[in-house]
Amino acid sequence: MPFVAKAIGQPVAKIAARVMAGEKLNTFPPFRRKLDYMAVKEAVFPFARFPGVDPVLSPEMKSTGEVMGLDKDFATAFAKSQLGAGTILPQGGVVFISVKDTDKAVVLPAARKLVDFGFKLIATGGTARFLAESGVAVERVNKVAEGRPHIVDRIVDGDVALIVNTTEGWQSLKDSQSIRQAALHNKVPYFTTAAASVAAVEAIGAMRSSDLEVCPLQAYYS
Description:
The protein is α/β, with parallel strands linked by helices.
């Protein structure tokens, strides 16, 4: 509710409280629902403050705050939300992709865009095979269990600029723990869902095509 109130510029909680106290909803100005801009919320997590902790989400609350990205289109708003949360999306370099089978087709268009942007792709066995068979240039890299040099070595050496890694099942989540910790320690942007990964690639494209602008909230309300 606080996020929506900031996004539309109307005191949603105050109106709700007054309605609960007996006032009629139709006595208040209608909520703004047709906006000519996008508002993206991003949570901020304190994983970097706790060395050795696996930076993975679980049922308990771990967010220490949130930021908002605002702009005329979703891709740019998403880019701003990432910057606000401390994630700097790269404009070049190597992208590591390792996704579960159900996500492969979803991230394929994003992988193609990354190649078009000039990025180099590396991937573990199954993902590398899928991308290669789909006509996307990719280099295969070892999983940690497959021996060195492996993906964590590449991350620690500073060779990786962006990570796309989705898992399925307990064992897969456990196997990717070292990747998450290496990404956190080396401040490499890391996306763990197909939807967020696609959004990140769209945001990279938006940042390449135009400069980010900053406006006060009141400018959007008007």
